[in-house]
Amino acid sequence: MKVLILKPILAGIIATAVMSVFAMTVPSMMNMPPMDFGVMLGEQNPLMPMPYMMGWVMHFIVGSVLALIYAYIFLKRLPGPRWFRGILFAMLPFIIAQSVMMPMMGNGFWSAGEMSMLIASFMGHVVFGVVLGATCKGV
Q: Whole-angstrom Cα distance, residue 94 to residue 121?
């Protein structure tokens, strides 16, 4: 049973790491705000402010939990090649992030309509989905 959990968690860590690098670098190259998860989920967390590094830890925990959900529930039920199934799944956390997390953090429902924030978040989740789909081979 341990191996069945470790493979998706590793895929989630890899996908979260790639998404994180993307989110911290690419948006700023396109005059969009970088997404610093240490600040968003740590220092500026309205429910439970935490140190910067704990925000990053939380980000990777969320990515790992999402990978487990993907592997056990969605992987074999979604159509298309693996990378595409990953993108389809990643739209669920994107919608949750924009509908619940962003308002909770004071950034407004769907990033208060701020297109650069919406696009950056969407692109980050697509990257997460592609990598998750490509690396998560199931359980």
A: 7
Show the DSSP H helices in 30-81 as ranges: 37-38, 52-69
Question: 75: which DSSP letter?
Answer: T
Given pLDDT bands bounded at 50, 70 and 90, which one contains residue 139?
A: low
Helix%, strand%, coil% for the chain, nearest 5: 75, 0, 25
Q: Number of folded domains in the chain?
A: 1
Is the Cβ–Cβ distance between 106 and 10 less than 8 Å?
A: no
Q: Which of 25-29, 75-79, 116-120 has the lowest mean pLDDT?
A: 25-29
Nearest Cα residue to 10 out of 64, 56, 52: 64
Q: How many residues does the chain have?
A: 139
| Residue-number span of the structural domain to which 35 is assigned | 2-135
Poorest-pLDDT segment among 19-23, 28-32, 96-100 = 28-32
Q: Could you tell me the CA-to-CA distances from 13 to 30, 88, 103, 122 in Å, in that order? A: 26, 19, 26, 19
The pLDDT assigned to 136 comes to 93
Q: Using CA atoms, how far apart are residues 48 and 123, in angstroms rounded to an integer?
A: 27
